[in-house]
Design a protein that fits this description.
This is SDR family oxidoreductase. Pfam families: adh_short. Residues 6-171 form the Ketoreductase domain. Keywords: Oxidoreductase. By secondary structure, the chain is of the alpha/beta class. The protein has one domain (7-230): NAD(P)-binding Rossmann-like Domain (Rossmann fold, 3-Layer(aba) Sandwich), CATH 3.40.50. Helix content is 42%, strand content 15%. It has a seven-stranded parallel β-sheet, with helices on both faces. α4 links the parallel β5 and β6. The longest helix is centred in the middle third of the chain and has 28 residues, at 91-118. The protein is globular, with a radius of gyration of 17 Å. The relative contact order is 0.14. The chain binds NADPH dihydro-nicotinamide-adenine-dinucleotide phosphate.
Length: 233
Amino acid sequence: MQIENAVVLVTGGNRGLGRAIAAEAVARGARKVYAAARDPRTVTNPDVVPLALDVTDPESVAEAARVASDVTVLVNNAASLVNADFLDSDVEEVRREFETNFYGPLRLTRAFVPSIIDNGGGHVLNINSALSWLGISGSYSASKAALWSMTNSLRLQLLPRGVGVTGLHVGYIDTDMSAHVDAPKISPEDVARQAIDGIEAGAFEVLADETSRRVRGGLSASVDAMYPQLGAA
Ligand code: NDP
């Protein structure tokens, strides 16, 4: 599908990668771009439509789906990184991470797919991470692994109904989320371009950078160098 003429909704569209994807969609000629945010006043791009949305709140998701019933491309970008250690964290902490990173995209997909189909078909892009294959971030990695699996299932279910589903995996993006990480990073703008390219190509999976390609392909010397804690694994 072409982004030109699409109506795009990006969750967490106020900052980081979400803001870059919303801006890229505008630059590529999307008919309308909703930048969804918990606080819509934090959406500063004048070319997008701010929309209030907390992905962990079913009523907020239902209201967003009602207001933005013209959406044809849903980008599940919003996420949180608590980096819980499974042995140290309580189960509630892990559950909260899944609420945002897994149940959020699930809620959004269930709420928006019926109207995407009614609007003539479209696309769901789930923003994932190389960490879904590399369990160095506890509940974050686990929630992204679950999102990866859901992406694969939805793709099979939705393709016959005219809705493509893509998972986009990245090593580290230069945003607030990775500010504490000392590793090579890719710019949000680069990832945003690849994200929209992936939607237009109907790609099953986009591996945005060298880290995600190498981690996906199996651990390698360069991944070992980036993650010394893996040692000789
Ligand atoms: P940021 O931490 O910079 O931004 C996170 C975004 O998610 C913010 O817009 C935040 O909104 C939003 N958000 C968090 N919780 C909720 C919620 N309950 N409801 C609605 N919005 C919420 O992260 P990035 O931009 O780096 O991350 C974007 C995506 O990229 C995520 O899916 C992340 O997992 C993925 N990713 C990031 C990598 C990185 O290195 N940064 C690497 C690989 C993947 P608010 O402003 O209200 O907090």
